[in-house]
Amino acid sequence: VDLHVSLEGRRDLAGQIYGQVRDAILDGRLRLGQALPPSRELASRLAVSRNTVGVAYDRLAAEGYISGRVGAGTFVSARLHREPEPAEGHRSAPRPHARWDAVPDPVGLPATVAEFDFRAGVPDARLFPFQTWRRLMADELRASAVHTAAYADPAGHQRLRAAIARHVGVARAVRAADCDVLITNGTQQGLDLAARVLVGPGDPVAVEDPGYPPAVMVFRSHGARVHGVPVDAHGLVVDAIPDGVRAVYVSPSHQFPLGVAMSLDRRMALLAWARERDAVILEDDYDSEFRFAGRPIEPLHSLDRDGRVLYFGSFSKVMLPTLRLGFCIAPPSLYPALRKAKFVADWHTALPAQAALARFVDDGTLARHVRRMRSVYQARHDLISALLTTELGDWFEPVPSPAGLHLSALHRSAPSLSAPSLSASGWEDTDAIALRARANGVEVVPLARFAVDGPPRSGLVFGYGMVPVERIPEGLARLRACLTGR
Ligand SMILES: Cc1ncc(COP(=O)(O)O)c(C=O)c1O
Q: Which letter, b or e, does each residue of 143-154 get, where b requires 16 or more Cβ atoms within 10 Å of its Cβ?
């Protein structure tokens, strides 16, 4: 055989040949009884002395890997014990369960960070109060604070649960007691726990279309049949939820990715739907702390009178996504199972971070940070909306968006939000625009990427967590240049 051996440097050449032939035998590239190259031939191919190859072969023979027959050559040793080989056609590497085929790879970070990074959903880390957080974390890592190395309650740190119950009561009018709050590693884990508790293989689950891909991935990973339900200017179109659905995921305060707020009528219709069908609503309230306009509409959780809403909150937007801290507020009928699911998943969220967060919330730092960031993000939101109308108005129409860290703009070729999205026309253009923009140092995400079942809408999503207000005009001017070809 033409055995591949590659030598590095000039040290221990015999050892290198020995090691590579042995590996080839052990991992099955060289089979039982197969002939090795004659030592003279291998020596000349590798430009080493025949003696060097001889030393390697002698060692392999002494250890039983190979044996020689006079006049016949050297062979992989018959004496070597190997597992019987599986019959041809039955050999395959271990495979995940087929339901994982429906889950795409998580989006990785782009290889390079764009000069103008308008990706959605990322807060401005430069303005985070790192010094305070460092001090709180350091305090929690003292022996006197840690007390014990025993595992903790899966539901979460008692003081943090109480702090969150107070915080959502004041900030979001969500009525909850400490015992309703379960601490999670971000909303992502909260959704996974909910799916473990509520969803079985083949169960239908409804999500908004366009919608939040990581939520779709969670439900598919549990074998659910995911149905995209259209979103219009008032939020999820409740009448379009398919029969048989018993769980629906929504982001009513600031729909992801379109940015609309669900109207009060729709909220009431969704709650009535859930009551009639014995269904559960998963309410994702991920960034509504940054609210700029209009009177806030009460969360579904506050309007719910039947204990049908699971409310998910996250510290990824108001603090940092890398901390992986979030929570879920659950009705008593679901709470014990969710707590069990949390235990099964990872026992509990890291305790020092929970304790530090409890103090961050209690001493008012979180509220101060949110107030400060709200005005920072509002300035960015207002400027992008204005420039989209004045400078990019020939191509795009911003979707009015009262809150959060991103806004969407529909391409002029797309049907307006008050019309159902019946055609898929034009969305390929926005993909091409996003590619040209990236080459010009501007990262924007096409709306079409968030389509679930329905035809993709043509538009772009503008996140403003990572672009300071003074850099927005140049970022959008560069985008405009990609549209005009200048
Ligand atoms: C719709 C939506 N929900 C939730 C989150 C936050 O998820 P997590 O708390 O897992 O970071 C995001 C973050 O981008 C989001 O866009």
A: eeeeeeeeebbb
